[in-house]
Each structure stands twice: as C-alpha cells, then as structure tokens.
Amino acid sequence: MRKVVLLIVLSLQCFTVSAQSLFGDVKLTHLQPTEEKANWVRKKQVTPKYPISLAKKGIAGCGIFKVVVNDEGKTDSVELIQSVPEKVIYRPSKKIIRKWNWVQAKNGNPVAEEKLIRLDFCLGGNSVEEAEAICLKQSQYRCSV
C-alpha cells in the first residue's frame, strides 16, 4: 500500500504546473465633481475588483466614464468617454459601475448628478503593494491614445 501511495505522489510531481502569480490593482479617480464636492458618493468605499475577464487576457489600461446618478441614487447610465486600450474595458467596467449603490453626501433635496470618473486597471509587480504602486503611477498618465 505504501508503495502505491509513494508511486502516486511521485507521478503527480511530474505533472505539476508552476502557476505564476499575477498581481493587479484598480484605482478609482473622481474627476468631476471631485469626491469632496459630489452630491452622491458610493455607499461602500471599497476598491473595485479587477475583472477576471481582463486579468485572464493580461489586459491593463484605463477608462474615463460619464456616470449619471438619478435623484433616487440609482445609476441611470454609464458612457465610455475614452479608454486605453480602446473599448476593451468598457463592458467589464460598466458591470462594476452599475453595481454601485449611491448615498447622498450632503443634506438637502436629492438631485441627479453627472459624474466623470476614471478607472485604472493595472497588472504587474511581485506583490499587491507593487501592483498598487504601479497603479498609482499609471493613474498620473493621460488615458488616451
């Protein structure tokens, strides 16, 4: 019995595949209005998750989106203004943005708000911290071709 188990363990080692870790980060930047001046803010201020579809293809880039939040705090529309690579990140980004819940940032009557936001999708580095540093640097560059 021991010989069979040992044989199985040794044969499995021959077929092991070394998986390379891929580190990614997403950075959200509020362009207009700034987060401090906004009527609506995201209810949960967590970093959006890197879309699996982009990570599997090794796609990094950025996109600038016009997001309309209605007077009830629901996302009415998401429009791609520009992106690098062109149009590839629109669909996964739209899925992310549509899931956000909005709450009023200021007291008063709720009014619809048009927002301009930027999402940077970054890959690289040997750790989460390095991926975050890469994303911070990438977010300083223009998001256009």
From TrEMBL:
Family annotation (InterPro entries): TonB_C (IPR037682)
Pfam families, A to Z: TonB_C
Domain spans labelled TonB C-terminal: 35-130
Signal peptide, first to last residue: 1-19
Domain of life per record: Bacteria
One BP annotation, GO: transmembrane transport
Keyword Transmembrane: no
Alphabetical keyword list: Signal
Protein name in the entry: Energy transducer TonB
